[in-house]
Amino acid sequence: MVDILIKNGHVLTMDPDSGDLKKGEVAIENGRIVYVGLSYNGKADKIIDASGSVVMPGLVNTHNHAGMTLLRGYADDLPLAEWLEDYIWPVEEKLGPEEIYAGVRLACLEMIKSGTTTFADMYIHEQAAARAVEDCGMRAALSYGMIDFGDPQRAASSLLKGRNFVKDFNGAANGRISAMYGPHAPHTCSQQFLRDVRKQARKDGVKVHIHVLETEAELNQMKEKYGKCSVNMLHDIGFFDSDVLAAHCIWLSEGDMDILAEMGVHVSHDPVSNMKMAAGIAPVPKLLEKGVNVSLSTDGCASNNNLDMFGVMKMAALLHKVDSMDLTVIDARKVLEMATVNGAKALGIEAGMIKEGYYADLIVVDMKRPHLTPLYDIDSHLVYSALGSDVTTVLVDGKVLMENGQVLCMNEYEIMVEASKAAKKTDSQHLIDVLGLQDYSDDQ
Ligand SMILES: O=c1[nH]cnc2c1ncn2[C@@H]1O[C@H](CO)[C@@H](O)[C@H]1O
Ligand SMILES: [Zn+2]
């Protein structure tokens, strides 16, 4: 007797060995997939009928600042440096662990509702993020965002926070949480600090998550300070390895791409954020050609402004088509791979494919919708037509977090009220709070 059997769906395994199963069955026991095939010969405690739907691996969002849901729309349409330095960083000072907990709960709700089962995060008060992930049942690779700005005291306290976070949370929530080190970026962290973090991560056996060359300003700053770009600087101090997840990677030279490929660095691509922040266009087709593992991500909600990976998939495809003026440069299947297989690979988790022995992290996408009719090509629909709201059922670690559009792992209403209240801590003059436009007080 298995725990769950998913029947009657079109199973997109994303596993090259099994391919797609037109009417497949997936059996789940103790959080793992124990059978993928045409017909399971056995009983199950629970049957999920996926008729008219696609069953596929849950999406993996490899670069987020989940607590930034609280800053959604807080400061838009500003130059990136001004946005970060004059608006985002000062307001983050006002947010404490309770606010971040509310913000990450909101992020998890939004991610679950749009088919994301795992995310990688880098932010402040990350213990609160861990608590939110533990409570809601998602899987996550979390890191404490560390910045020293060349100040040795700040370096020491940042590293201590990062170390404590790794000590307390790596492997937490029954293994659903893995911890990473999260040095912010090569231009906001000193070389010595980056060396120390690198050393500590190797010692602790955990991965590293960092922003790399998001802006041309970073490239210029690095050239001025070190006489070389971020990639060369990091390479020269021995920072790179196959345990490094580098977000953005926009301003790369041909040589930089070769270094990333040679060192096995994973690149997280944020097409929506990059367009919104006018940061530039990452050379994704070239990186893929060189064998770099490129995954997809939303970035934080202050630069996206939502966490819908379906939107990210579509934008990833469109951006590189128009950039190269070549429609064939990236196809729907490649984008799906980036959002599932490649994401799981970057985070080192046995997910991203529906495969025996892998975690039962999967989603059901309803194909019987007006904007998905008629249906010629499933990959095409998932990337170019589907929306996060087409996801009806979500499982993580073999637990059903959402079923038929009903979120089971948290109270949606309560999460929105709590997040709206937490946003008041920003002291923003513009906040239309829970007593204004978003008046939930009379409901229920
Ligand atoms: O697009 C971005 N570029 C650089 N930094 C960012 C971006 N989005 C968020 N953060 C900042 O990274 C830190 C992580 O702990 C936070 O301060 C967050 O505001
Ligand atoms: Zn970021």
List keywords for this structure.
Urease, subunit C, domain 1, eight-stranded parallel β-sheet, 14 helices, 23% strand, binds inosine, binds zinc ion
Outline the structure in words.
The strands form two sheets. Strands 1, 2, 3, 4, 5, 14, 15, 16 and 17 form a nine-stranded mixed beta sheet that branches. Strands 6-7-8-9-10-11-12-13 form an eight-stranded parallel beta sheet. The chain is an alpha/beta fold. It is globular and about 65 Å long. The chain is 37% helix and 23% strand. The protein folds into two domains: 2-57 and 353-407, Urease, subunit C, domain 1 (Roll); 59-347, Metal-dependent hydrolases (TIM Barrel, Alpha-Beta Barrel). The longest helix has 18 residues, at 152-169. The chain has 14 helices and 17 strands. The structure holds inosine (NOS) and zinc ion. Residues 65, 84, 88-89, 92, 122-124, 145, 184, 211, 214, 299-300, 303 line the site of inosine (NOS).
